[in-house]
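Morning!

This is the sequence you dropped in the shared folder:
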Amino acid sequence: MILPAHFDPIWTAPTSAGDDGLWFVFHRNNLLVYTAHSDPMLPLPADVLSGSLGIERERARFVGMLGETPVWAAHAASDRAPEGHAFENMRMLFNRLPDDLLAIGGRAVQMLEFDRTHHFCGACGTPTGIHEGGRSRKCPNCGETYYPKVSPAMMVVIKRDTAAGRELLLARSARFPRGMYSALAGFVEPSESIEECIHREAFEEVGLKVSNLRYFASQGWPFPNSLMIAYVADYVSGDIVPQEGEIDDAQWFKLDALPSLPHRLSIARRLVNNVIAEVAPEHPALRV
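The structure's back. Tokens below.
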């Protein structure tokens, strides 16, 4: 998810805190949206602020500025949505809410989750307080300072060019939507480089050895707090052996027989599209 250019992720809240703005209200990471129309919308600011929706808000946080509009996030004490509204999983809102709002919502939910999981000091157990305008939380007893957790993870598309054309190694896990395949991905372990992680995960997850790693791009991903760092790699050797419990299936796919691919908001889709575009710039998958 890429934050829109007209969004400023500043930490210092405006003086008129909460008097006007756009609110992202969550309960257990599900976003409150207005569902009375065919397309979901975020609740109107006046509804949230006036209390007419009957929502008891907790842990309100300033998220940043969308142009001239302050953006706020809050956790709802109850999962009972007002009439005409619903709490929906953010992944289920892809293609239903504007991409820009989904990206800002990703930042909002991570900030609330940081507050929830760092309410007490992990060193001495004392309640922490907001520090540096919300950028961190600090323990008033022992001075320990905590910052939002960001978990680096590698992502890689393995390719091979054959006499029949380019093939991509794509895999799926049990949590994917039916029929969808994606690039390999895995979290970086302590003291491990991204490149070492790619070699390890490619061998562990599908039994393949790779070479010629090329950096593509990175992307923050709020499910739950990842920094995805994407690469392209060339196949060297090995037969596909899916890792039990991690990979349901993995296959080499020709470009004219691709499976269902990840959503356009994900770096996985951009990575796959980039590898396709190198040899097939007019491929239908690139039009999504």
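Headline: The chain has a mean pLDDT of 90.

More detail when I'm at my desk.
O.
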